[in-house]
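step=predict obj=60S acidic ribosomal protein P0 n=319
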Amino acid sequence: MPSKEKLAKKNAYFAKLVDLCVNTPNALLVSVDNISSKQMQDIRMELRGKAVVLMGKNTMIRKALANGHTEHPEAGLDKLRAIIQGNLGFIFATNCTTDDIREVLGKYKRESAAKAGQNSIVDWFIPSGPTGMDPSQTSFFQALNIGTKIVKGQIELVSDFKILAVGERVTASGAVLLNKLGIRPFEYKMEVKYVFQDAAVFSAAVLDMSEEMLIQKFLAGIANMAAFSREVGIPTEAGLPHAFGNAFRNVAALVADIDFTFKEVEDVKKFLEDPDAYAAANPVAAAAPAAGGGEAKKEEKKAVVEEEEEEDMEFDLFG
């Protein structure tokens, strides 16, 4: 059984987490893998008065969210509980926006050397050229099958070599070689994984969407809705312009050959009755077909001349 002090701390933590989720439903869920205590301290100090950084064990977080969901079923705490996995923490925006929090998180990065056995998070190439290492250390390159040559008393790489790949384990020889070259390929910072806003949880990729992208997706959705409504025959506001356009074309086709007209179709009937008027009203549109016809006539004349020449050449040398 936990002591009274531990139990009181747990209850206080549960109450704080549920209160923030219910009353401040605007938070970022961040991954804190490989984050140092100094980074965490700097971020807390930078966000003091603007946001609340709350970390905890996953078991305690799930328990608190489960309890809070029974009391506040409309707050979306069950959705939060479903994604709690790994080293995740909360940053609640109390007096700032989520963009301000992301800007602060981007400031505090930590470079790290590659260690044998860990999974690489980047693709890394060692560039060709001088390495600054003396010829006695060629064994490190030979262990990794890297082509080298000795120039002016130092080792040079013949070509670029990919020593790290995303998701692959760092080999012992690769880690030693990178340390020898003074390369620190990894960079760690708090990564935003999810966004919790207004009882909904969505991926952090939504934060990178611009207004142009949103407008484009909205217009694409309107176009799809208009096409679907026209196909199934159900009138919608998005499909009304297309419906009226098709209806007008049908009416114009019906009254084109009869002695009946109305204001909107008068111009159409004038163009159908007198094509020359259409050509005069649209000189650019009429010029293109005319030019094409001229070229066709030239080609036809040329073909006729060639046929006549071929007929003239038909004679028998021994006749």
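step=describe
Residues 308-313, 315-319 have pLDDT under 50 and may be disordered.
step=end
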